[in-house]
Amino acid sequence: MTRVAGPDGGAADGRDTRSRLLSAAEELFADRGSDAVSLREIGRAAGARNVIAAQYWFTDRDGLVQALLDRHAPEVERHRHRLLDEFGAGPHADAVVGGPGADGAVHELAAALVEPLAAKLDQGAAGAGYLRTVADLLTRPVPSMAPLALDQPGGSIGRWRALLEPVLEPDAVELHRRFLTVRFVAVEMAQRARAGRDDHRLFVSQLVDAAAGLLGSRVSARTRELRAQRRGPSS
């Protein structure tokens, strides 16, 4: 429901306050991480007259973090869907694990994961705050899946996962290789965003290569053995 007025004034002023709160959160999160900044600090940094402005607009930290993700998601989603469309129309679309074109398919899909996030590296504090927040959420002891939006029909990560499955070993799929790769990429992106570099082309190309290597690496006999032991005897 749209709020008609906020603690800092009328509806228009309130919308501006909400935007300023998100921008302040992006800057603070980029510098210190999303778990180290209080809502009151965000309100002060945004110049809000009311100390509870962030609570008013977002209810709590989770609400603010979700709003920040939602601010960036449409751009990332459009970019990734475009790359996935190109993959689907390309020569590797029907590749299967171990078959012709499988390596190419994995590399293309690795690029579809990396490149939409890499675009945020050129967006200053806003992009850096988003990337740091994504990494923070995915590296919690119990990871938050909020950045992946897997519960939303038609989401790009859900589509990416489905396109990858035929070109990955079944054991790699069951061992959550796709999530491991997403988390690895998110952490590397967040670190890069803090480095203050201007030219990201080599970094991005190498990260695509690394993500493809992680996705496509074979599951070793030792890993299979240990996994079998953990699962126990068949019933």
Automatic annotation (TrEMBL):
One MF annotation (Gene Ontology) recorded for this entry: DNA binding
Keyword Nucleotide-binding on entry: no
Pfam families attached to this UniProt entry: TetR_N (PF00440)
Domain HTH tetR-type: start-end pairs: 15-75
Taxonomic superkingdom: Bacteria
SUPFAM superfamilies assigned to the protein according to its UniProt record, in alphabetical order: Homeodomain-like
Location of the DNA-binding region in this protein: 38-57
Keyword Ribosomal protein: no
Keywords per UniProt: DNA-binding
InterPro entries: Homeodomain-like_sf (IPR009057), HTH_TetR (IPR001647)
Protein name: HTH tetR-type domain-containing protein
